[in-house]
Design a protein that fits this description.
Layout: E1 6-11, E2 15-21, H1 24-29, E3 37-39, H2 42-51, E4 56-60, H3 62-73, E5 77-80, H4 87-98, E6 102-103, E7 115-121, E8 127-132, H5 146-150, E9 152-158, H6 165-180, E10 184-188, H7 192-207, E11 213-217, H8 218-225, H9 230-237, E12 243-247, E13 253-257, E14 260-264, H10 278-291, H11 296-310, H12 322-330
Parallel strand pairs: 1-5, 1-9, 2-7, 3-8, 5-6, 9-10, 10-11, 11-12
Antiparallel strand pairs: 2-4, 7-8, 12-13, 13-14
Helix pairs in contact: 3-10, 7-8, 8-9, 10-11, 11-12
């Protein structure tokens, strides 16, 4: 096996987050799914944007956020995702390259526009996400850089992007390339509605031993396994996945690997400002430790520290020096 060029390469939605604080009354008025993620069309995105107060535009996307955290920790990363030839596409490409991540996917000419996620943040720090997938759902399999995939220790796949046909085919091709090169495949389930639509696909990937590292939260674990009891869900899934990581919000997280179990509590925080990207950055910290063969408990602690940093401010990209933060917290 050749020496890998990247620690992690990811395939995900290339999205620009448009974030605005709001009161619960606006969530009710717009009939939004508070705390969840809902897909909207372009007209719906325009309508919601008009209803927003002053907003901030921050490049996002679940897998891209995870890579941003990894890069901030010092990992070598690359991203595969589709943007359009428009202003938000330029914003996304600039932002991801500016944090040291390789991004070489050619832009897509013409409509639809670059994806955006309209995020309403209520005073309780819950984020209500409304996503127009736009160009991101038209990632052609033939644009996949199989050599880059084979050159990464870990291929990281975003469940959100499994929904559209083209990127789903691209991710299947990427799994083949990673497997052929003897690399690991990591997968994040992303959201319960994705499991409702594609749970059979995900279960088949697991049964076929094509996923080495699986990230889920407690509600996704229940949706995938059909087990409402947390421990029953773990018991059902852990024997089928070499490394299983399940987050539980303020209750911390659990990881199981080759019969070993480790748990970590949530990091203490003075104020939760915005939970956008908490799971994404948890994956950053965990994967950073994993590619360095650190103990399972240390990987979990890294994840908790990174997640705590991200919920202390608006946006799903790190603002603090994550390397310094890890050094301070881990000693």
């Amino acid at each position: 096996m050749t020496e890998p060029r990247y620690d992690v390469i990811a395939i995900g939605n290339a999205i620009v987050d448009v974030m605005s604080p709001c009161e619960d009354e606006l969530i009710d008025e717009l009939a939004l799914n508070k705390g969840g993620m809902t897909l909207v069309d372009e007209d719906g995105a325009k309508r919601l944007y008009q209803a927003m107060g002053p907003a901030r535009e921050i490049s996002g996307g679940s897998a891209a956020n995870t890579l941003a955290g990894l890069s901030a920790l010092g990992a070598q990363c690359a991203f595969i995702g589709q943007v359009a030839d428009d202003q938000l596409g330029e914003v996304f490409a600039h932002d991801i390259r500016a944090v040291g991540i390789d991004f070489d996917t050619p832009v897509r000419p013409g409509p639809p526009a670059t994806a955006r996620c309209l995020i309403f943040v209520t005073p309780d720090a819950q984020r209500t996400m409304n996503t127009f997938l736009g160009a991101s759902q038209f990632l052609p399999p033939e644009t996949l850089d199989a050599e880059a995939v084979a050159a990464a220790k870990i291929l990281y796949l975003e469940g959100y992007l499994w929904d559209p046909e083209e990127p789903r085919a691209a991710m299947r091709r990427a799994i083949e390339a990673a497997r052929a090169a003897g690399r690991k495949v990591a997968f994040t389930l992303s959201e319960v509605f994705v499991i409702d639509r594609h749970g059979d696909d995900f279960r088949a990937l697991i049964e076929d031993s094509l996923i080495d590292i699986l990230f889920a939260n407690h509600t996704e674990l229940a949706a995938l396994t059909g087990e409402e009891d947390f421990e029953a869900g773990l018991a059902a899934l852990a024997p089928k996945v070499p490394t299983l990581v399940v987050t539980r919000s303020e209750q911390g997280a659990v990881a199981m690997q080759s019969g070993e179990r480790a748990e970590v509590g949530a990091e203490p925080i003075d104020e939760v400002v915005d939970t956008t990207g908490a799971g994404d950055l948890f994956a950053s910290g965990f994967l950073y430790g994993h590619v360095r063969d650190e103990p399972l408990a240390t990987c979990l602690r890294r994840g908790a520290i990174a997640a705590c940093e991200i919920i202390s401010h608006y946006g799903a990209r790190p603002e603090a020096d994550l390397q310094a933060l890890m050094a301070e917290k881990l000693g």
